[in-house]
Amino acid sequence: MSHPTVKRGIDYLKNLQEDDGSWYGRWGTNYVYGTWSVLSALNAVGVDMDADYVQKAVNWLKARQNDDGGWGESGDSYYEHMKHDAAPSTPSQTAWALLGLMAAGHVKDEATRKGIDFLLAHPRTKDGRWEEPWYNAVGFPRVFYLRYHGYSHFFPVWALSRYRNLTRSNDKSVQWGM
């Protein structure tokens, strides 16, 4: 973390953080995806995950959790006046939030447990994939949105695997891989 390039990258990310603690996302929809991505990057370079700006992001994720235990966000969040409107929980966005919380060391949190429970209880197709009929990615914000069918399968499996591996080892520090 002492390398000048890494420090500049961290400073850049800190400057991009929204006042509420989230980060804007591009590729997956939107702030949940962006916040997970940044928390994972900060973890990977060894940032103190108890830092105020990290915990602000964690608190934002927890505040966005839906009553059913999952997380959801629509493409409307790319409009400033709608950026934090509630949306139905989705498996992929729940997985992103869980991966972000776990990257920040919140493995045994109530929010994490509720998110895991959401994934385990969420309806699946006959071939075992999580059902997710909503758009989960963005081509160009406020122009067109996409649904990557693999997102609703890959990301929940990743989150469940990471949770299992961290709880099995009684660890709260995310290492490389699952």
UniProtKB/TrEMBL annotation:
Protein name: Squalene cyclase C-terminal domain-containing protein
PANTHER family to which the protein is assigned, alphabetical: LANOSTEROL SYNTHASE, TERPENE CYCLASE/MUTASE FAMILY MEMBER
Pathway: Secondary metabolite biosynthesis; hopanoid biosynthesis
Domain Squalene cyclase C-terminal: 2-165
Record's keyword annotation contains Plastid: no
Pfam family for this entry, one: SQHop_cyclase_C
Keyword entries, A-Z: Repeat
Similarity comment: family membership: Belongs to the terpene cyclase/mutase family.
GO CC terms of this entry: lipid droplet
GO molecular function terms noted in the UniProt entry: intramolecular transferase activity
Organism whose genome encodes this protein: Iodidimonas gelatinilytica
Keyword Aminoacyl-tRNA synthetase part of the UniProt annotation: no
GO BP: any one term: triterpenoid biosynthetic process
